[in-house]
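From the shared-data thread, chain only:
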Amino acid sequence: MEEEHYFGGVEGGGTQSKMLIVSSKGDILARSYGGCTNPFVLDVKAMDGFIECAKELSKMAQEAKSQINISKLKAIGLSLSGGAQADSQARIMKAFETVDPNFAEHVYLCNDTHGSIFTASPHGGMVLIAGTGSNCVYITDNEKTYSCGGWGHMIGDEGSGYWISHKAIRTALNHEEGLEDAPHSIVELRKRIFDYFDLKNFDEVLDIFYTHFQKAHIAGFTKEVSDAAETDPLCAHLLYDAGLVLGKHVRALINRAYAETKKDFESVDIVLEGSVFKSWTRLKQGFIDGVRTEHLKAARLLRLNETSALGAAFLGARHANLKLTLPHENLVEVLDTLKW
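Structure, as tokens:
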């Protein structure tokens, strides 16, 4: 009879984090929740963000273990925002030596995209993120990683909520000043910009982007664009452009993978994350136009219906050379299937 093992998994973010403990058969036995576990965000707020990260993770683990009365995990996977670089991983591991040396028998660290992909499939795949920011990552079965985007709002985040909102304001402002004509009337967009941001004139935009800059609030204007897109052609055009550039992220990774392997893709599973995809029907045509490449024939677009901490736990077990069985197909819902 195989020995029963307990595995932990963490979905770590810049605002909140989730942890669960699962059995070898994939049964969820305990859950706990915590705050920020991104060491770089915590570094701004504390003397040592990596120590604070380890403390928060340790607290979550203690809470989850207490629910099922166990003292130690066989392995844990930490899928953390800010956990991609080898130097960051080494510093987190060193912090555990001080904070909680008995955290788990085996600890595996990766960035936040890995957990999502391996929740959906044990064989890797792709994740496309479009929330406040954007990013796209493709991971093969042997965990070779290709990435595109994720550079932040100053130089990237194309297709994200912030990018859409910024482009909407820029489009209306350029038209207003005569710098560049918008492809459609700006009347509805201008009204929504003024109402959402409580502006009396465009001069007050400076306050939004400089004096009282709040990226999440700016990104939130994307919902206004999405609502208006039902009847307003300019807002519909903005979402088409967002879909186009998000599709190009996927195309870039497929083409790069083909350049190395010389193998075409019959299909790829893409996990979609982020609130921008609530407007999928408006993004869809642009996405298809952007993703189209001779090296990919079809794509299945998925949404997770469970935390990506499950995929993190799966990776933790795999890297400890132990088996964790997950019902991957039951952990996703198919948003759309595309063929061309």
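Residues 214 and 266 are 42 Å apart (CA to CA).
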